[in-house]
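User: quick one, fold this
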Amino acid sequence: MGRRLALLIATYDYQANGLRRLTAPAHDAGAFAAVLQDPDIAGFEVTTLINEPHYRGGEAIAGLYRDRRRDDLTLLYFTGHALKDDDGRLYLAMTNIRRDSPLFTSLPAEQIDQAMSGCMSWQKVLVLDCCYSGAFPAGRLAKTDTDVHALERFQGRGRTVLTASDATQYSFTPSKGTSHTAQPHSRCSTVTW
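Assistant:
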């Protein structure tokens, strides 16, 4: 039986102007890690990154997908802000993101898609809890394209992708003083191959 490996990335504090501090990511990542690590529930080996720069996130993602066997199960979870450029490309915001150069200061969805494609595992799970997450992976959809295009875009053997929103939606984070009660959105997407 293969290994169960999870990488949880949570970013809620940003150096960039215009990206507000989030309240839910640290809590969400901690709670998810506890469930995943519990041997009676999931039994994953979990690595958690909180408020790290893009290069640490990239190194950790490379490590998650490198040297895997077919029977390994990998899970990548991201919670935080995400941005889209004028060509519709998705970028996962890390603590050092610069809005004027997300290609070099974030985690581009194209790179994550390439890392997943190069992984030998036939069991890959990606959970994106961020705005515009339905724009994953790399396509070139306009910012105003309202379709998720899941069947066209989430290709790859053994992939399951869960997104919190479609390609143009904001994800919800509770206001200060409100509970973290889950409210499923009617357009939450799941695609499995």
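User: anything notable?
Assistant: Confidence is low (pLDDT under 50) at residues 138-154, 165-175, 178-193.
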